[in-house]
Amino acid sequence: MPDTLVDVAAVAEHLEDSDWVIVDCRHRLTDHDFGEAAYHEAHVWGAVFAHAERVLSSEPVTDRGRHPLPDPDTLRARFGALGIDAGTQVVAYDDAGGAIAGRLWWMLRYMGHARAAVLDGGWPAWLVAGGATRGGEETRPARTFRGEPRREWVVTIDEVESARRLVDSREPPRYRGETEPIDRVAGHIPGACNHHFARNLGADGRFLDPAALRERLEGTLGGVPAEETVFYCGSGVSACHNLLALAHAGLPPAKLYVGSWSEWSSDPERPVATGEE
């Protein structure tokens, strides 16, 4: 039962397995039509598509960031529509090293579904391996998803500053406030250190082995238990990559501030820091 990462060979063996659901999560923050168009052109054989805006996000509930977390009833309905129930093995993939697929992985885990994994190396690895593909749109028979949320895994904007350790998952220049291509203000939440999610990957676009990940992540945690650490990013998406890395490294789950910088920076009353911390 893969519960963090799964390789191309294992997925290829289960393409016709009705209890395996493969989900294409490709997306571009600057082009919301990209992922769906790419999926229709070609995708992993049998995969369904989950749009980052329409499926992995919702109207604001717990947060007012760019990609708000859907409420539990909405998540149950959307996961069920993808063909997921308690007996389903889910495999999520993208073409961004898992930066988007990690969000679906985390959402499933948040709702109590442990049988979820990210395809290591994603779409590029599938193509290199000669994996079966096809175009168009595919669907799976709907199932009933009954998961319950782990609410302790989520913090809101008013709880962020009480975290013993706060980790920003964005690129170092964005963290330092040298550039900000999307949000209103450049910089980071005061007190946050930086662990860009790409540090979890090797040159081949696959995750580092668990021992190497653990060493890097423990350096970021700075002696603070993972359970007392909060991760954020631009909008609660790529921070899930770090949460996936924690799990693959054998470390306990940390918390997610879903609203992330997009919510924090939209409030002119919230303090902003720049540079390294």
How would you describe what is shown here?
With 277 residues, the protein is an alpha/beta fold. The protein has two domains: 5-148, Oxidized Rhodanese, domain 1; 152-264, Rhodanese-like domain (Oxidized Rhodanese, domain 1, 3-Layer(aba) Sandwich). It has nine helices and twelve strands. The strands form three sheets. A five-stranded parallel β-sheet has the order 1-6-5-2-4, with helices on both faces. Strands 8-12-11-9-10 form a five-stranded parallel β-sheet, covered by helices on one side. A two-stranded antiparallel sheet has the order 3-7. Helix 4 packs across helix 8 (239-248). The mean pLDDT is 96.
Quick overview:
The chain has 277 residues and is of the alpha/beta class. The protein folds into two domains: 5-148, Rhodanese-like domain (Oxidized Rhodanese, domain 1), CATH 3.40.250; 152-264, Oxidized Rhodanese, domain 1 (3-Layer(aba) Sandwich).
